[in-house]
Amino acid sequence: MVNREKIKKGVRLIIEGIGEDPERDGIKDTPERIARMYEEIFKGLEPPEEELLKCIEGETHDEMVLLKNIPFYSVCEHHFLPFFGYAHIAYIPDGRIVGLSELPRAVDYLAKRPQIQERLTKELANLIMEKLRPKGCMVVIEAEHLCMSMRGIKKPGAKTITSAVRGIFRRSQKTRQEALELINKDK
């Protein structure tokens, strides 16, 4: 659970630490604003409000399902700066399917915590395998990291691409290639 008071105290210390006046008109409410923002962007640290990847009862399918260009925002745990981009998810059901909004909901939940992109990719693939028990899944995430764009190496626009493949997507190059072609179509 987010502790607003601790965040406000910490932000005030940062404001003082950079040499600003924490009582200046434009800044005096910043600790409260940041505390509310952290409560929102780190919502994934709390248990989900609803079950993730709830299957549709009575519906089945056994061919590829692909949802691409799912926008997400997360915070890098190393510098507490945002990284953002798109997740692409493909799975081949073994009968069980979910409503399409369930996949972006899972992306949002897992992204709303201090993260690294590699872990986010794996967590999403593992969640799909656990909850849907499909023949396989593939998750591809492409993101820009502000810790690389605005500081350090300063390379805005550079994209990091990670993937996690499970089941048939790992065993079958043809299946993996089909998903990648669909992801890259119309880019």
From TrEMBL:
Keywords: GTP-binding, Hydrolase, Metal-binding, Nucleotide-binding, One-carbon metabolism, Zinc. Zn(2+) binds at residues 76, 79, 147. Pathway: Cofactor biosynthesis; 7,8-dihydroneopterin triphosphate biosynthesis; 7,8-dihydroneopterin triphosphate from GTP: step 1/1. InterPro entries: GTP-CH-I_C/QueF (IPR043133), GTP-CH-I_N (IPR043134), GTP_CycHdrlase_I (IPR001474), GTP_CycHdrlase_I_CS (IPR018234), GTP_CycHdrlase_I_dom (IPR020602). It comes from the Bacteria. It catalyses: GTP + H2O = 7,8-dihydroneopterin 3'-triphosphate + formate + H(+). Pfam families: GTP_cyclohydroI. GO terms for cellular component: cytoplasm. PROSITE patterns: GTP_CYCLOHYDROL_1_1, GTP_CYCLOHYDROL_1_2. GO terms for biological process: one-carbon metabolic process; tetrahydrobiopterin biosynthetic process; tetrahydrofolate biosynthetic process. Its EC number is 3.5.4.16. GO terms for molecular function: GTP binding; GTP cyclohydrolase I activity; zinc ion binding. Residues 7-183 form the GTP cyclohydrolase I domain. Homopolymer. Belongs to the GTP cyclohydrolase I family. HAMAP family: FolE (MF_00223). This is GTP cyclohydrolase 1. It comes from Thermodesulfovibrio aggregans.
